[in-house]
Each structure stands twice: as structure tokens, then as C-alpha cells.
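Researcher: Here's a chain I'd like modeled. Treat it as a single chain, no partners, no ligands.
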Amino acid sequence: MNKIKAGTILIFCTVAVLATMGLSMTGAGYTVPLRIVMPMYKVPNLPENGEAYYAPDGIHLIAQVKDPDAQDPGPGKVGGSLTYVFTDKGEDIRRINDHGMDACSYFSPDMKTLVWTSTRDHLTDMPAGNWSSDDDYPQGAELYLSDPDGGNVRRLTNNQWYDAESTFSPDGKWIVFSRQIEGNSDIWRMKADGTEQTQLTFTEDWQEGEAYFLPDSETVIFRAWKNSERLRLEALDKKNGTHTQTPMNIFTLKIVGDDLDVQQRTFTNDTNWAPFPAPDGKHFLVVRILARNNWELFLGDLADGRYMRRITYNDGWDGMGAFSPDGKKMVFTRSEPGSWALYSYVMDVTSLNIGPENYTAIPPKSKPPAGWVENPEDFAPWRK
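Model: Modeled as a single isolated chain. C-alpha cells:
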């Protein structure tokens, strides 16, 4: 889960806030192409839902769906959803979990296993928390595996911390996830069966999360912000009556070996949120916030931090995008203007040409905008 302040948004995995951008412009170091609107449709036959991810078959989705049997987090808090599987045409609808409050779910590459987050075993001993506030994440959130029909549930974690944002590696060997302990979030990995849980980042200030595997099964893309910077800006906003975005950028790291090889992939002083890699191993989705709190999806380039292409155009809220394995479809979460209700939409992104047939290797570094200079102190906690 991640910090989302957009009314009563229903879902689940980060923070945010950002600056203005035009339809065709060069700004903030980015080149933004002309507007091209691609075909899309709303997934039918479902109540409010979001944070959907494609199965390896490119047809089924796993997502969080509003459900009356879900735990109620209380007034003004985000939650009340359970994990469901369904097709991107709104058919073959299956509820995976029947109690607690769920978030952050994913398919294994062989489609035989699901991983998902739930408070189902901490309904009475811990407060429900709030999926959209990192200051109040559900500390009873645990990770679970199950069969595709919801049977054979196996609990992977057993603690009083926040465990969420879990994804499988393409080769099926690994799961990466976020764990928050006493307010500090880091990235962890484990074997696909839940064994060998290993902490990867050990940063007291950086708040890392939302890690997704690139095609090599060894590199993940993630977002991170500094808590000290967020608190500093919040204090200034309170004093001056302003509203400043939390600086958040996108990075990659290696989950195997002694060198994390952390590389910065976006270079702004505003928010870059909810990354998701393209099957070509070069591009990635990212959410940015434009004028009038307009959340939109953009396509970034791992090799060129100066490039950013806008994908969605909606005066409401667009976020949490994910590509199908063939790179031809993108599922994302949308609220229409004037509404806080979230639903899953599918866009035809064939024209982006980001399929796995174009994968050769992960770009080792990104070219930053002109004038950007790395601050060694920023990277020191990752390079010990």
C-alpha cells in the first residue's frame, strides 16, 4: 500500500503529489510527445475495484474488489475490499478470500499460485489501519499464497508489521515485497514458497516500496521517497498554507548478489509513483499528478530519464497501470471526473511496440536531464 490522498480512494499500494505538464512540451527535463489517445473500455460486471494485474495468459486479472464481507476500516479510511480474479471482459469472476481486508495481489508465472495481502488473521488483535496512509498502514497485513480458486491458503508471514506489495519474478523463483517496521519501509525478497525471507534495503530515511520484476528476474523497479524531506515540506506547508508534493523518484536494484546496483531512473523534485515495467525491459509506467490534482499515467524510458510520454487523458484519476505479458494491453484504475468510485479499464497499447519480442537487456543506467548531478549522500545507504 502506499500513501494516496485523493478523497476516499479505495485502493492500496503508495504516496503522491506533482507539477503541471502540457500535452506537448519540454519541461522538468522531460520530452513529452503530442497527445495520442488509444482505444479503451471499462471492465464490466464488477462493483468498485482497482489495482489489477494481468495473469500470464493475458486474459485474466487479479484485483481488489469492494465486498460487503470485507473488514471495514472505519470512516475516512481506505479499505473494504477483497481479492478477486476475473477476465478483462468481466467474466469468470471468482472471489479468492472471504474475510479480512485485502490489497496487493499477483499471479505466479505458471498461473498455479496467487500471492495476496490480507488482514484476515488480525481482525481482533490489531487495528484495521488505512491502506492509503503510510502513517497508519495495517500492521496486521500478512502475505498469503493460494490456488487460483482461493483454495489451499498458505500464510507466508507471521508478525505484527505491514507486509504487502508482493510480486513474483518471471522465472517463478522469487517474491519481492515491502515490509514496514515501526514506520520504516524496506524491500525484502523470499523464495516463492515463502522461505529465506531476506531484507534487501536497510535505509532509515528512504521509504522504498512497490517493487516489480523486470524480464531478467533479477532486477526490480521501485519507488522511494525520503521521510525527512516529506516532513520538512509538510512543516513548511503548514506554516505557509501551501501544498507541496513529496519528492519521489523511480529506481532499479538487483535482488541477487552482493551489489544492489541501485540506479535512478526518474529525476524530478515532484512525485513519480506506482512504476510498472514493460515486457520489452526498457520502458515503464509511472503515475504523475498534473494541475488541479489530475493523476495520469506516463510511459518512461529506463535508458533515458529525459523521456516521458503521457498515456492517459482524464480529468478524474488514473493510476496503478500494468501491462499484459504480450505488451498489447494495459489495465489501469480510473475514477471519472466528479466521482471517487474506482474501476478497472483496459487500453489497447499495441501501438507502443513494447512487447517481449523487443527485449534484449536491461539498460544499465539512465541518461539524466541536463544539469542533474548525483548526490552521493542519497545513494550511500544503498551502497554500503
